[in-house]
Amino acid sequence: MLHLGPRNDVFFDLLEKEVANLHEGARQLLSLVNDYTDPQTKVDRLLEIEHRGDDITREIIERLNKTFITPIEREDISGLAFTIDDVLDMVAGVGDRMLLYEAGHPTPEVVEMCKDMERATGALVKLIHEMRRLSFDSVRSLCEEVKRWEMDADQLYRRSVAKLLNEPGYDPIYVIKWKEIYEKLEDGMDFCEDVSNLVEGVILKNA
């Protein structure tokens, strides 16, 4: 049955729930790299958070398929849901690969990149909440914050990969493992910026 009621703000509720779950995943990843003890338990917890995110994304899409009137365009809702899920996939993928690849103790660079991820997803929590109000000034400020963290992580990524490839003494397998882990984090940060761009577009369309 299609729901024809006013606005259906449940979509804002679900997007806020999804991004809060993402932020929890980023905090869990940061906990893992800050204290690499009992990594199996911490990664298991991270994967539980990822699975919960999949469930929330699925609920959003199922509700979209049953709802006629939405508070913003349905493609914006689905785009946000899938992109937030993409960030969480990257976050969980970092922890999972560190464990599966037996990559060893986290590098200082990966710790700093995970801090940027935690900060960026924290800003996304505020950003999705502000989207409900369709307030351009507050959204623009938060989008700029997300982009700052993305730029910082990008610079860290470039320096980290250059260090792996150019400094002598690194085992080639070690280089392959950590280069992929850095790339996962960088991809996740790019998706964070994509979320902020989507929200900015929503605000401009509804101004």
Walk me through the structure.
With 207 residues, the chain is mainly α. The chain has one domain: Up-down Bundle (Methane Monooxygenase Hydroxylase, Chain G, domain 1). Helix content is 82%, strand content 0%. It is built from 6 helices and no strands. The chain is globular. It starts with 9 loop residues before the first helix and ends with a helix. Belongs to the UPF0111 family. InterPro entries: PhoU-like_sf, Put_Phosphate_transp_reg, UPF0111_domain. This is DUF47 domain-containing protein. It holds the Pfam family PhoU_div.
Low-confidence region ranges: 1-6
Q: Quickly name the level 1 CATH class.
A: Mainly Alpha
What would CATH call the architecture? Up-down Bundle
Strand content: under 5%
Biggest sheet overview: none
- Global structural class: mainly alpha
**What proportion of the residues is helical, as a percent range?**
over 70%
Shape: globular
CATH topology: Methane Monooxygenase Hydroxylase, Chain G, domain 1
CATH-assigned homologous superfamily: Phosphate transport system protein phou homolog 2, domain 2
Mean pLDDT figure: 92
Distance between the termini: 31 Å
* Structural domain count: 1
Q: What kind of assembly state do the chains in view correspond to?
A: single chain
